[in-house]
Structures are given as structure tokens and as C-alpha cells.
Amino acid sequence: MVFSSLTFLFFYLPVVLAVYFLTPLRWRNLVLLVVSLLFYGWGEPVYITIMFLSIAIDYTHGLLVEKYRSDDRKARRFVIQSVVFNLLLLGFFKYYDFLAANLSLLPGIQLPQLGIPLPIGISFFTFQTMSYTIDVYRQDAPVQRNPITFGAFVTMFPQLIAGPIVKYKQVASELEHREYSPEAFARGAELFVVGLSKKVLLANAIGSLWETARAAGQAGTLTVAGGWLGLIAYSFQIYFDFSGYSDMALGLGRMLGFTFPQNFDHPYLSCSVTEFWRRWHMSLTSWFREYVYIPLGGNRKGTARTLCNILIVWLLTGIWHGAGWNFLLWGLYFACWLILERTVPVFRRLPAWLAHAYTLLVAVVGWGLFALEDMGECIAYLRVCFGGGALWSAADGYALRSYLLTLVILAVASTTVGQTLWQRLPQRCREVAAPVLMLAGLLLCTAYLVDGSYNPFLYLRF
């Protein structure tokens, strides 16, 4: 089940909110755990067992770390056990078939591929539970002795399948005591409808242009203009798809009494690749910085070690997104740009307009590497984009005319223009307009979902 589905909007969510707020405060974590397990098990109920296993391992290891805190050697051992379990769980389901297929290419090795479906959201919830025991060991978060409360944290449906990645220490106090108010609920509802509109009305609207370009690449009719149009379309689609989902998650969390970390901050306004990754999927960037980059030494052990740490983090970031050579290449690609920005002074002296332009170019090409998982298709597509085909065709002109207004709207919506204009309105005007716009957005999204069949969620596969 995804947030942008009629089942979620008009059945699951209303029932959950009604049950949640009719339940006494002391039982709400139990309600949250139950409804989250129902949400997760909607499509793949068998994987609820994996969720229970993950909860049990990390809950007990958190208690063991706390129990043996005076014996650092034992406490550290339990942290390592928890981390290894989470990595093995993620590795088996996400990477076994990839490793088996590639190792079987070597002489004398033949490993069977199991073809096991990937549990939804496993990359997100394993990182969350893994950080819990680390934070307890570091004394950055209190140990959770109530298994229901810990289970509610791990399975919390607003951010279960696509983040943002919420560290336990960020919501520990709210798991014990949450503040509720009509104003917070209304703000959460606004965030949810904004995110829903971004995903349904913007991301879905441009996704077909990317599909057209990809089909042309597979058919051998792709042109340079068509290739770039497709990459730009995908860049907008993945941004509004994922940031829209993140806004919906933040909104749902606010409605339930939680404050989740922001996950996007207008990344396409960035003037460097470094800045871009401070603004895109901020919870993942923060996780890798806190639990990988800094423990490796960060930038404290000389230039060579810093560059090596950047390379390691970004190779891991690429692999985290998927089991494919394109994701490894994607991570290496951005690692190289980040290293260049750190070591080549000219990048720090570029005029703002040029820095912004090259950052967008790097990001758009990077999304091509990300989207095209088949390396043959990826190389062929990008080769055409950089001059390996005809410059343009009549079909490109038709596509540009058809999608020009949509592209302009997407470009403006990816900036702060809308927020700035909204803040300039008188407060009374905003108070009147907000519910009207929310209702209009919900009605338009509903009409689209009823009428349309194209409603992918790009990050669901991670």
C-alpha cells in the first residue's frame, strides 16, 4: 500500500486516525504498532515475520548493551552483533542474487539465484534499527525497555517504507509523551496534501515523458534532444515523487504527534554537488555522515584519508540504493565530483550562475546512471545524449510542445518562489486560502487516481 492510493486515502487512513484518537493515550503506541504491521503486511504479509525478527534482535541487544555498559568490551560485542545481523538481513534479501549472478561468471563457481522478492522498505528500517543500538552504546539515546514502544518506532507506517530515516534519539521523547493540538494536526494535513499533490499532479504528469525517451532508446530512435528531455523529465519526476512522499510522511507524523526530520530542501537550487547532497535525501546523508564517515575519521586525519572516506561512503551509498553495477557506478560518479570540489580550487571560484548550471548538469546525468539499471542500456542512452545520435526529430518537437508548460511549472515548483509568494500574502488571506487549496488539491489528486493508471512510486523498490 502506498500513500498515493485510493485505498490508503479513503479507507486505511480515516480508520487509523479514528481508532488512534479514540484510544486512550497509554495504548496509542500499541495501536500504532498494530496498524503499522497491517500497513506493511498489506501486500506481503509473509515479511511481517522479518519485521518481528528485526524488532526482537535490536530490542534485546539494546537491553544487553545497557546491562553491560560497565564492561565496554561486552557492550561493544553486542553492538557489533546487532550491526552484523542487520547487514546480513539486508545483504541476503537485497544482494544475494546479484552476487550469485556475478560470482557464477567465474570459472568453477555456480551459485543458484533464489529470486526472493525484496521486502518493501528493508533498506530504511534496517538502518533505523541498526542506529538504535549504536546510539544506546554511545549514550546518545536512552534504552527502550517497552517492546511495544520499540516496535512502534521500528514499524511506524508514515516513514516505514521510504523514510525519512528517523533515528531513535530523534523521536525517543515523543514515543513516551506526545503533544497533540488542532493546529499541529492541521499543519500535518496541509503537509500531507502538498506532498500528495507533488507526487500525483507533478511527478506523475512528467513521468510519461521519461518513459517515452527510454522506449526510444530501447528502439534505437533516441536523439540528442530527446535524450536530454528524458533525463530532465526523470530528474523532475524523482524529485517530486520522493520529496512528495517525504512531505506526506512528515505530515502524517505531525498528525500522529511526531516531528520527523526534513528530507529535502530545494536541492535543484544548489551551487555545488556538495550542497546538492546536503539538500537531497538529507536523512540518508546525515545517517552515513554520523555512522560511517565520522567513525572512519571524517576530515580529521589528513587530506588523503578524507578523500578515501568520501569514496567509501559514496560507494556504500550507491550500493544501499540497489544491487546493480549502475548503482555502484552512480556512487563512484558522485564521489569523484565531491572529491574534485574539495581538491580543485577552481570549483570554489566559479560565478554563482555557472556553479548552479554545472551542478544541475552533474545531477541530471547522475539520474541517468541511477534510472537505467541495465548497463548496456545506460551506456547506449548516455552515448546518444553526448552526441552519439541524430540531434533531434519531429517527435522531439512534439514532445517539447506537449510538455513545455508542465516543465515550466515543475521548474518553478522546485524553487522557493511559491513559498515566498505565499508568505507575502496577508495572514488572514492565508488562513482562508489554505483549506480551500487543500480541498482542491485532494479533489484533483482523487480525480487523477480514479481516472489514471500511471501511478508509480520510484523509491518503493529500495
Tell me the number of strands.
0
Number of domains: 2
Overall form: globular
First-to-last CA distance: 15 Å
Any idea what the radius of gyration is? Answer: 23 Å
Q: What proportion of the residues is helical, as a percent range?
A: over 70%
> Count of helices?
18
Mean pLDDT: 92
Largest sheet: none
What does this structure look like?
- The chain has helices spanning about 5-20, 30-40, 50-65, 70-105, 120-140, 145-155, 170-175, 180-220, 225-255, 275-280, 280-295, 305-320, 325-345, 350-370, 375-385, 395-415, 415-425, 425-450.
- With about 450 residues, it is an all-alpha fold.
- The radius of gyration is 23 Å and the shape is globular.
Entry keywords:
mainly alpha, 2 domains, 462 residues
List the helices and strands and how they pair.
Blueprint: H1 6-22, H2 28-40, H3 48-67, H4 72-103, H5 122-138, H6 147-155, H7 168-176, H8 182-219, H9 224-256, H10 273-279, H11 282-293, H12 303-321, H13 325-343, H14 352-371, H15 375-385, H16 394-413, H17 417-424, H18 427-451
Helix pairs in contact: 1-2, 2-6, 3-4, 3-5, 3-6, 4-5, 8-9, 8-16, 8-18, 9-14, 9-15, 9-16, 11-12, 12-13, 13-14
Quick overview of this protein structure:
This protein is mostly helical and 462 residues long. Helix content is 71%, strand content 0%.
